[in-house]
Amino acid sequence: MSAGTQLWLMRHGETEWSLSGAHTSRTDIPLTENGREKAKELGAFLRDTKFVAVFTSPMARAKETCRIAGLIENAHVDEGLMEWDYGVYEGKSTPEIRKTEPDFSIWTAHITDGEPVDHVGERADGVIARALEAAGTAGGGNVALFAHGHILRILAARWIGLSAGGGEFLGLGTGSVSVLGYERTTRVIQHWNRGFGG
C-alpha cells in the first residue's frame, strides 16, 4: 500500500445521547442543532481535501454528518462501521450503570445481547481492508470514514497493531476528525481528535 494513503476518521456530530453520555449503538437518533453546526465546520475543514473513497455507517447520525460535510454523494454504506452493539447497556450512561455494577467499564464488561470487543475489532479489520482496497484501486489517496466513537477508536487501535481493547486509550469527541497513515511503511496515527470548538 502506498505510504501516501490515509484513512480520515470522522465521528458523527453531537446527539442528545452523546451529550448525556448514554451508550448509543442501534438506536437511531438525530443530530442536535449543535451537532449539525459542527458538521458544517467539519465540512469547511475538509473542503480542500480530495477523497478517493467515502464510507459511512448506515446510521442516520453518521450519514447526516457525511451529508452536511458535503461528501454523501459518492459515499458507500458499510455495515462494518456500525457502532459497537452495547446490548443491555444501550441508552444507559456509565454512571447510571455503575449504580448497580460499581466496576463497570464497557471495555471489560460481558455484554449481554451485544458484542464482545474482539468482534468489533474483527469488523474494524474488515473496514480497514475495504478502505485500503478502495485506495489501492485508485492508486492511493485519502479515504473518508464517517462513523461512531467506539468503532473508530477500535479501528485506530487495530490500524497500529493493538488489540481492539486498545481503543480504550484513544478518546474521541463528537464531530472530530482524525487521520491514520504511514511513517515510511509503519502504520501510525498522524493526527487525533481534531475538534471544532465547544
TrEMBL record:
What SMART domains is this protein classified in? PGAM (SM00855)
Q: Name one Pfam family in it.
A: His_Phos_1
Q: Can you tell me which residues bind substrate?
A: 61
Q: Which GO terms describe its molecular function?
A: protein histidine phosphatase activity
Q: Name one GO biological process term.
A: regulation of phosphorelay signal transduction system
Q: Which SUPFAM superfamilies match?
A: Phosphoglycerate mutase-like
Which InterPro entries does this chain map to?
His_Pase_superF_clade-1, His_PPase_superfam, PGM_Phosphatase
Record protein name field? Putative phosphoglycerate mutase family protein
Q: Report the source organism.
A: Granulicella sibirica
The organism's taxonomy opens as: Bacteria, Pseudomonadati, Acidobacteriota, Terriglobia, Terriglobales
